[in-house]
């Protein structure tokens, strides 16, 4: 199989959209990621996947912690900005939560300490031990077949 066939197949899996953030010293760094999942309830663990060429890799390795903001349906601009697709947004007003920068207005914010990491192919998988969570109500921003989607775009399953 070629790379495009693999990408097409993986695009058939609908995901939520997150922004992963961290801070090292005075420097804050963030990136959009849809490679996020829960791993364990006891202890509370989540997983993120970071490309070996991403600047975020060095930031997480130095800080030993990260935050995950699960975006709401109105935060496509935040996703695009942290994915490097939109250069117009100049300043992000972070919501500081548990001493970590998170995206204001997100559906959920989780702060994590790196619990473990595994190099897998061209990515590093970080398992984070969740140290705190904040949630709000709303509908998520979704990603499917390479496009942003909203839950309202989908037919209700009964």
TrEMBL record:
Occurrences of domain Flavin reductase like (ranges): 10-150
Top EC category: oxidoreductase
Pfam families: Flavin_Reduct
Source domain of life: Bacteria
Record InterPro entries: Flavin_Rdtase-like_dom (IPR002563), NADH-dep_flavin_reductase (IPR050268), Split_barrel_FMN-bd (IPR012349)
Molecular function terms, GO-annotated: oxidoreductase activity
EC number(s) from the headed UniProt entry: 1.-.-.-
Species of the source: Ornithinibacillus salinisoli
Name of the featured protein: Flavin reductase family protein
PANTHER family named in the record: FLAVIN REDUCTASE, FMN REDUCTASE (NADH) RUTF
Entry keyword RNA-binding: no
Keywords annotated in UniProt: Oxidoreductase
Gene3D superfamilies xrefs: Electron Transport, Fmn-binding Protein, Chain A (2.30.110.10)
Keyword Zinc among record annotations: no
């Amino acid at each position: 199989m070629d790379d495009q066939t693999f990408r097409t197949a993986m695009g058939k899996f609908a995901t939520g959209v997150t922004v992963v953030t961290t801070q090292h010293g005075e420097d804050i760094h963030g990136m959009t990621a849809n490679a996020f999942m829960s791993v364990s309830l006891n202890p509370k663990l989540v997983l993120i996947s970071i490309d070996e060429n991403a600047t975020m890799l060095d930031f997480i390795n130095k800080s030993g912690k990260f935050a995950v903001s699960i975006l709401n349906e109105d935060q496509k601009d935040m996703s695009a900005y942290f994915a490097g697709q939109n250069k117009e947004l100049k300043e992000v007003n972070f919501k500081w939560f548990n001493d970590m920068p998170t995206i204001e207005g997100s559906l959920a914010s989780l702060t994590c300490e790196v619990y473990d990491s595994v190099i897998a192919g061209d990515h590093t998988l970080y398992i984070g031990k969740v140290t705190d969570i904040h949630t709000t109500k709303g509908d998520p921003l979704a990603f499917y077949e390479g496009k942003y989607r909203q839950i309202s775009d989908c037919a209700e399953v009964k």
